[in-house]
């Protein structure tokens, strides 16, 4: 594939690509304000205005907006803390569908969604009594031209990196995406690898074990998802929200949230819940 660079991080052992588990609090303070729109992303739509937290909140160690009082999101929902999550991966792996499934609980089949693309959607989750707003950005088709703006990565607190289990090339490209992420994302970005479309059992060409092995090699949590059936979709975003919330609000005596363990415990196999 044309975008494939020599994978610098390959074979580098756990955590070389993103090292979410070994990230030190404070490393991300060089990052941009969490709710400012990425330069390259299509900023159209009412939601593209920066959220109140950017102005009212104080910045935490990892750059999260931490307003002293709850802020009001553009959708009219109050939240305590806000983060940016970005979806990355080859065109056609299901990024837009994953976002729509998470936000609206629906699956949009057909070709129109892949051509239209959306900019971002907000969703407020309740994490242990704290209202966590995730501002989830879609690449709006930029990935088709291998030209995802580098600012897009820089603003991200978390990245969901997707491949399609029915498309070997999308899996083979994961290393190239990881190289890109390693180069341009914040050092302490929360990263998760998702193998999407597991409802398509007949067409599957990438085994779950292959995804697990790659994820282990790079030290990133992994799960298989289906935007169509909804399998593990909420879990992927909830796990990210929990990790980000714990990082930004951890009390001195509180034990660290262990994202890997949480994912392992909560993840459902593709045999379950198929539509
Ligand atoms: N079977 C199945 N198809 C999916 C799934 N997610 C997305 N698709 C389909 O894959 C195509 C590309 O999805 P899209 O979300 O546009 O991919 P994107 O380019 O990564 O944003 C569309 O035709 C979707 O209907 C899934 O979980 N299962
Ligand atoms: Mg899309």
Automatic annotation (TrEMBL):
Its cofactor is Mg(2+). GO terms for biological process: protein transport. It comes from the Eukaryota. GO terms for molecular function: G protein activity; GTP binding; metal ion binding. It is a lipid-anchor. Pfam families: Ras. CDD domains: Rab26. It catalyses: GTP + H2O = GDP + phosphate + H(+). The keyword Nucleotide-binding applies. SUPFAM superfamilies: P-loop containing nucleoside triphosphate hydrolases. GO terms for cellular component: membrane. PROSITE patterns: RAB, RAS, RHO. Signal peptide: none annotated. Its EC number is 3.6.5.2. The keyword Hydrolase applies. Belongs to the small GTPase superfamily. Rab family. This is small monomeric GTPase.
């Amino acid at each position: 594939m044309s975008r494939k660079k020599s994978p610098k991080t390959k074979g580098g052992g756990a955590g070389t690509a993103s090292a979410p588990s070994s990230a030190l609090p404070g490393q991300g303070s060089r990052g941009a304000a969490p709710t400012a729109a990425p330069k390259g992303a299509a900023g159209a739509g009412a939601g593209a205005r920066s959220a109140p937290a950017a102005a009212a909140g104080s910045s935490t160690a990892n750059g999260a907006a931490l307003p002293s009082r709850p802020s009001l999101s553009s959708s009219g929902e109050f939240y305590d803390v806000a983060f940016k999550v970005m979806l990355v991966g080859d065109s056609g792996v299901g990024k837009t569908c994953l976002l729509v499934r998470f936000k609206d609980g629906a699956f949009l089949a057909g070709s129109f969604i892949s051509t239209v693309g959306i900019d971002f959607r907000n969703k407020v989750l309740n994490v242990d009594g704290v209202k966590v707003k995730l501002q989830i950005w879609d690449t709006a088709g930029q990935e088709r031209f291998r030209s995802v703006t580098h600012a897009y990565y820089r603003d991200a607190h978390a990245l969901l990196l997707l491949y399609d289990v029915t498309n070997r090339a999308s899996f083979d490209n994961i290393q190239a995406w990881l190289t890109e992420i390693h180069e341009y994302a914040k050092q302490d970005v929360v990263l998760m690898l998702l193998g999407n479309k597991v409802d398509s059992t007949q067409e599957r060409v990438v085994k779950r074990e292959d995804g697990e092995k790659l994820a282990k090699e790079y030290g990133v949590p992994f799960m298989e998802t289906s935007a169509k059936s909804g399998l593990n979709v909420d879990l992927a975003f909830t796990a990210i929200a929990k990790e980000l919330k714990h990082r930004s609000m951890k009390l001195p005596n509180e034990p660290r949230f262990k994202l890997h363990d949480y994912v392992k415990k909560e993840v459902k196999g593709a045999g379950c819940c198929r539509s």
